[in-house]
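Ticket 4471: requesting a sanity check on a complex prediction with flavin-adenine dinucleotide. Repro inputs:
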Amino acid sequence: MSPLGLAFVPPAQAADPDVAIIGAGVAGLAAARTLMAAGKSVQVIEARERIGGRAFTDSTTFGFPFDHGAQWIEGGKSNPAMAIVREASAKAILDRSEQAIYVAGKELSKEDYERFEKIAHEATRKIDEALKKQPDVVVGRLLVPQDRLEMLAYAMVGPLEQGVENGELSARDFTRQPEAEPQYGIAEGLGAMIARWGAKVPVRFGARVVRVDSTGAQVAIETTAGQMRARAAIVTLPTGVLATGKIGFAPQLSAAKREAIAQLPMASFNKVALLFSRKVIDSPAGRNVTGFTRKDLSFDAIVRPANREAALVFVGGAQARTFENEGGRAAVTFAVSALAEIFGNDLRGAVAKSHATQWGRDPYATGAWSVTRPGHADKRLVLAQPHHDRVFFAGEATDPVWATRVGGAYASGLRAAREALAVLSAPRR
Ligand SMILES: Cc1cc2nc3c(=O)[nH]c(=O)nc-3n(C[C@H](O)[C@H](O)[C@H](O)COP(=O)(O)OP(=O)(O)OC[C@H]3O[C@@H](n4cnc5c(N)ncnc54)[C@H](O)[C@@H]3O)c2cc1C
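Returned structure tokens:
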């Protein structure tokens, strides 16, 4: 029996698994599938009542799949997550939507579109040039907007793309990432595909891990639903969850690892889904609308997704955090106003259903994805290092190239599984 009085698995019925995997997101599921394919026994331990973590599709509320978290496989076919598409026998659909840009309710003129292109190009050049001279720099020091068009273009570098303000954005971490385009969607929803792909992995749901002790012959894992032991463990938790200190390690994590966790905070990025009772948006299906409202707040949106009378509005950075602090309705009110400026006030009275994600308030995510604080781009590799030989670290935050994305989570799960396999095949001490 555990100190909490609950047996995790009755010892008479189940042997200790070779590897315990903490977290049933993409990283944990990828690690589990790899180890299972290599003939090892695994047990995934998950605090929620579902798998997928930050990849989750709500397929019922709106009549179309609404991905609360990850939605696209970005960066083309070289994205490691394309392997999931193949393994799940799913189909990746190239997103061909064109971007329409609005400022204060009006679409840009031809001249402004051309200027916008130049501003975006120049922003990339400034960042690249600066990085030739120094190891890292705060993006906000390089991109100082002089007018609204620049404000919007720069918002698409930090808040709307990375989920952080440019004043907190590391140029090195930003340029590390492969371009988002081309990006692919999944008809059933990316989260739904992940849920299918991971369905055969053994998961203990509703068990929040509170301690990982590798001081004994086996790794002892204490959860809110009891204890278990395994020969090795893989930790895939978001850095924000690790930073809360609600999960303890024995021996204590090294100072370098604790510093890495502190320097990899979570970005803020949320989505608002709106379903309208009638046609109120005069636009082709699936159009990408990016804008700056009359109150100088930025947003990104997909209008009429899947040919529905609906919209998905995305907010990021400080603005997303503010809406979270004000409660879910604040983001919905903003999303409706932002669209009403463009498509007319008629849509205000036609909202039939709405939902705003609040990833920052989700205790098992604490934010959208990891970002490195300026000057700390090397910390992802530090976080990825094993702890005390038999405790391995995975999760999007640990991947040097595809961090922040599903592809990074997937690649990190494979890497951690290989590390665990090496330990399992070594002679027992
Ligand atoms: C709004 C949003 C939009 C996004 N869009 C995209 C996109 O379009 N494309 C893309 O590639 N990526 C996107 N991402 C990022 C992507 O979702 C993540 O990079 C990826 O899903 C992370 O997977 P993971 O396995 O590393 O972590 P997670 O999915 O967070 O998995 C960790 C798991 O650990 C569990 N857990 C937490 N604490 C405990 C505990 N104490 N004990 C046990 N279990 C615990 C969690 O419940 C979770 O299931 C987006 C994310 C968000 C939030």
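Notes from triage: The first helix runs from residue 26 to 37. Leaving this open until the requester confirms.
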